[in-house]
């Protein structure tokens, strides 16, 4: 197998708690000296007297997978040394404090991976067909919108 | 020509239409994405609340609402895509 | 307790396998929306026909702890929104493929944490009194030196 | 004045001196870090291999080898610090 055949791009939408260890293991390999990660969690937030108690996520699942593949192609074009990419994203109900997304990128040296992980979360927010609504302690709800 | 397409709604657009997906049996094709949006507005006038905020995804490809012309085939998926908020 | 009293700077030198989950848990908190991480592992490397089979780490432990505190002060001065910082570093024998360092920084928003984690690994390599030697399959050994 | 200090060796300097730590009973103080290095070289000539590569840590503070004068007290820790390679 050549190096490029061994490269993994793994995307998972999950209704369960995200395992950071599983994400790390997915991108680990003996040719990778560096793993850069990002984990997004729901902050405890108060908006006009209402308290956020959690988020409810939905996705256009098949399209999310194909947009993830495009995202990986884009990353590999910009940082050809990137070895493996793994993104796990929650669906359904996510309580305040829990991770809604965990992603890791491995590379032989750290600089490429560190730049690539920043690009990965930006592009994910801009292009993957995933939506969340905030749910408040007043039982009100509000669909969110990512900044451009 | 017309095509029978499957329209998928997500997020706010589900609440406005009351459906997650529906078959539309005779969509003219080719059609501009603006005319396709008008056609959905006729069926679900409350979608007007998302005017200027949504895009389509036609066969998993984003299409802005405007002059762009799309060619539809029977069984094609067209999704109404409100502002994204993943991550 | 005020926000600033709650901030944690956690440094651990460990002879055992590093738990990524423990590092993440250490920096988690309901006010943090973003966790940035870096994991450094030993790459499989060949140098002039010799194969690296592992690394042997040692540290000036008490001083490493005090240099870590300075490093955290420096990070908080540059990025005042940084919430918690956690670094686990291996000592002793580390096989090829295993993590030798795992670090995480939490922050309310992601940009500060992403910049801070890059600074954290650079500063750690430049200032913490920790040394490694590479051990080869030929039983030869060689002390390493971080680039400036 | 003299002080009794504890000298710690790390990494390559352990291999060159054969010791990890030693008490030195009568180190003149104040002393320039260069003179302190010369004093260690007299005890362990093989340390010369690390010349221009090491720094000291005196009471956990890095001190370059040169004109800088350090004041030592009984029981102070002085470490020989070869090039760092953590991470």
TrEMBL record, chains B, D:
Modified residues (Glycyl adenylate): 87
Gene that encodes it: MOCS2
Organism: Zoarces viviparus
Entry keywords, A to Z: Cytoplasm, Molybdenum cofactor biosynthesis, Nucleotide-binding, Phosphoprotein
The protein's name in its UniProt record: Molybdopterin synthase sulfur carrier subunit
InterPro entries: Beta-grasp_dom_sf, MOCS2A, MOCS2A_euk, Mopterin_synth/thiamin_S_b, ThiS/MoaD-like
Subcellular location(s) of the protein: Cytoplasm, Cytosol
Family the entry assigns: Belongs to the MoaD family. MOCS2A subfamily.
Extra remark: This protein is produced by a bicistronic gene which also produces the large subunit (MOCS2B).
Cellular component terms (Gene Ontology): molybdopterin adenylyltransferase complex; molybdopterin synthase complex
Domain of life, per lineage: Eukaryota
């Amino acid at each position: 197998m050549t190096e490029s055949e061994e490269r993994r791009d793994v995307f998972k939408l999950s209704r369960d708690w995200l395992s950071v260890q599983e994400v790390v293991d997915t991108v680990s390999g003996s040719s990778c000296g560096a793993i850069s990660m990002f984990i997004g969690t729901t902050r405890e937030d108060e908006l006009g007297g209402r308290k956020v108690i959690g988020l409810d996520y939905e996705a256009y699942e098949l399209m999310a997978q194909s947009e993830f593949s495009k995202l990986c192609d884009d990353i590999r074009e910009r940082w050809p040394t990137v070895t493996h990419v793994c993104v796990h994203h929650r669906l359904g109900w996510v309580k305040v404090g829990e991770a809604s997304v965990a992603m890791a990128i491995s590379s032989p040296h750290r600089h490429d991976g560190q730049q690539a992980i920043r690009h990965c979360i930006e592009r994910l927010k801009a292009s993957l067909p995933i939506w969340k609504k905030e749910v408040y302690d007043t039982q009100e709800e509000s669909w969110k919108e990512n900044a451009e | 020509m017309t095509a029978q397409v499957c329209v998928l709604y997500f997020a706010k657009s589900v609440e406005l239409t009351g459906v997650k997906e529906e078959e539309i049996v005779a969509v003219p094709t080719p059609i501009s994405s603006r005319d396709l949006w008008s056609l959905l507005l006729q069926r679900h006038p409350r979608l007007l609340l998302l005017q200027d905020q949504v895009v389509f995804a036609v066969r998993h490809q984003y299409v802005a609402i405007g002059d762009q012309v799309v060619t539809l085939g029977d069984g094609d998926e067209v999704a109404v895509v409100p502002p994204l908020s993943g991550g």
